[in-house]
Structures are given as C-alpha cells and as structure tokens.
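Hello,

Our lab assistant flagged a job as stuck in the queue for most of the afternoon. It eventually completed. Since we weren't sure the result was trustworthy after the delay, we are filing this so someone can double-check. Below is the sequence as submitted and the structure that was eventually returned. Let us know if re-running is recommended.
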Amino acid sequence: MPELPEVEAARRRLEGRILGLEIRSAEAVDDPIVFRGITGRKLAAALVGRRVKAVGRRGKHLWFELDRRPWPSFHFGMTGSFAIYDEPAKRPRFWRLEVVFAGGLRLAFRDPRRFGRIRLQLDPANEPPIARLGADPLLEPPTARALHTLLGRRRAPLKAVLLDQSVFAGVGNWVADEILYQARLSPVRPASSLTTAEVGRLRRSLLSVVKRAVQVGADSNRFPRAWLFHTRWGRTLGATTARGEAIVHATVGGRTTAWVPTRQK
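-- returned structure --
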C-alpha cells in the first residue's frame, strides 16, 4: 500500500513533468467506487482547458492545483498509481482517469483493486477527508513537547496510534514498524507509557525514516540495508534482521506487525 514516501515520490515526479501544462482532453471510467461525489465523466469534463499550477500532498493524499477551481484530489488506496506516457497504446490496464496535455503527454491514474478515491473539490486541503488528517511528518513535524502531550492522552498500543491518520498523516504499516524498530520501542506498549526520552527517540526515528525514504524516491532498493523493511514481510518462521535479530510477527491494532522483542521494549 502506498504510504507517505511513495505518494511524495509520485508528487515530485508529477511536479517535474506536468507543471504549466494545459489539459486538452480527459476521459474516465464511470466507476462509482473510485469516483466520490461526482461521476468520472463529469470530473473529466471539468478538467479540460485547465492548466496545472502545482501538485499538493498531505499524508497519503495528492491533488492538482489548477488555474481554476475545483481541483481533482486522489487517494491511492492499496494499488493506486500514476502512469506518464506519450502514446495512446501505452495507456495502462485498470486505468480510471486519463488526461492528455497540450503537446501529447498523457497521464493516467490506475487502480487494479479499486480502493483508491478520486474527488473534485474547491479546496482539497481544507475539506474532508484531507482536512481531518493529523500532522504530516514531512511538512509539519510535531515538536517533542507536542508529541509527548499527544501520546500522553492515548492508551492504545503505540503501533495503533502511529497508524491513526488523525494523528500522523501518511504513516502506514511498514513505516510504523520501521519507526518503532529504529526507536527500540515495542508496538504493544501503551502510547501513554512513554517517557520523555522515549518520545524523543520516537520523534527522531519518525523524521529520519520518512526523510530518508523520501530522499531516495521511495526506492526500497536504496533503503539502508540495516532497515527492518528488507526482512519484515510475510510471517516466515526464523526470519531475522540484517543484525541477526529474531523477528516476531503479530497483529497489533488490527494490522500485521513485524518487530524484534529483544530490541524493542
């Protein structure tokens, strides 16, 4: 599932290719699951003739700022992504929306499993669902004091709190596991039980993991080899980290969680 690093990488790629371009035509599949509050056909028609001024993001949500409102916003869900190409024959399978820019460049939003969402909004950043999100660790990281206060009110397991999008926008399953592994904190600890020093470690890991993943364009092959990411997948018996630590898989906050009890307390 795309998380903050993957969505930010997509935003940067789009920003480098479509800024300033005018949308000459658009086509959409009328999918009542993916399109919310509007049909795909009407949304596509509303984009024609508009120019892309910026590409915004908050958490796992992304939107296009056009020269006239309303603007399209996107949530990738589990399998959503953008494809950029220059020939009609290259349009990807499972496309939901395709726009053609002046000059012939084409952009499609594809989503095989249809968990993604596309909306047309006057001000995406200040309307639900984006307006309900918590702090984006890349754009507006919480101070150590604010984080300590926030966690002090939460008795839920730390992993569940990290995944709460009203608290941390964009933190998903693998990011949360990596943060806790690097901070040496157990995912099952009540969030309110953390000391001031532990909150500091959590915050440093939060910022470090997100910034490093974004820095390498969310290319997992370029993540540090010591990261839990490379060995956390599945429930393989006897799985170990790059350091040789035994990995345990459990369900915490309703999500499969990989962690190292000998390291994370």
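-- support follow-up --
The delay was a queue issue, not a problem with the job. The result is valid. The two ends are 27 Å apart (CA to CA). Helices lie at 4-18, 40-47, 144-152, 158-163, 173-183, 196-215.
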